[in-house]
Structure formats: structure tokens, C-alpha cells
């Protein structure tokens, strides 16, 4: 039995980025940006902002851009490949844990802010668990 070969249009010898682009398209990134910004807006509009600390991520939120969404995904992939004890350790300056990748790509607070609101599905279209047509993986179905 011969191994399965992944066909990349226009390339006989695809690079890792060619294969990545087969799965994570510009359209998908744009959709995630839209859904993340929509969710952040809904959460922020439901809060009494004057009651929150000035350091609150909700008060500091600014809509995520396409570039930031790509950078966010890159950091998520990096975190999946390089194991560190805590999420904060990817930005640490501690000599035993330091690696510069994440801090060069995005500020830790911005990453955590995007992570807090990251959405790939529209909550308004997801049926409640008690509905007989409920799909338990509705929130991740857009990328399956």
C-alpha cells in the first residue's frame, strides 16, 4: 500500500506553509476575526464598564485585525509544539525558560485579550443542549 500524498495545487514539493494554507485559508482567518470581534463586542456591551478596573482587558479591547489574527494563530501553533509550564512562560524573560518567539510576534496582554474572546462559531446559531437537534461540536464544526 503506497502512502497518501497530499496534493497542493501548483506544487510538486509543497512547503509547510503551502500545506498550512490548505487548511487555514485567508477566508477562514477573516471569518475568525469577524466572529471574535462580534463576540468581544457582545461581552463588552453587556458589562458595566465603569465598574471595571482600569486594567481590565474589557476596557482595553480594540478590534482584532487580520494580521493580529494570523499572529495569534501562529502563537497558538507554537504553543502546541513547544511545551512550557504555564501560558505566561512563553513571554517570560527568565533565563531558564526564555524564548523570544512569542514576544517578538505579539505582546502577552494582547494575546491573552484575543484568547479571551476568540470565537470560530456564532453563539447565536448554536442550539441549546436540551434541543433534540443539538450538535455537541457546533462550536468547532466550522473548522472540521
Summarize the structure.
The protein is mainly alpha-helical. It is built from 6 helices and no strands. The chain has one domain (16-123).
Work out the radius of gyration: 19 Å
Number of helices: 6
Unreliable segments of 5+ consecutive residues: none
User: Strand-and-helix sequence, N→C?
Assistant: HHHHHH
The counted number of beta strands is 0
Number of domains: 1
Question: N- to C-terminal separation?
Answer: 27 Å
Give the biggest sheet: none
Percentage of residues assigned to helices? 40-55%
Q: What is the structural class?
A: mainly alpha
Mean pLDDT: 84
Strand content: under 5%
| Approximate shape | globular
Pfam family, one: DDE_Tnp_1_7
InterPro entries: PGBD
Protein name: PiggyBac transposable element-derived protein domain-containing protein
Domain PiggyBac transposable element-derived protein: 15-144
How would you characterize the overall build of this protein?
The chain has 144 residues and is mostly helical. It has 6 helices and no strands.
Layout of helices and strands, plus pairs?
Layout: H1 16-23, H2 26-45, H3 57-60, H4 66-81, H5 101-105, H6 108-117
Please supply descriptive tags for the structure shown above.
PiggyBac transposable element-derived protein domain-containing protein, 144 residues, mainly alpha, globular, PGBD, 0% strand, single chain
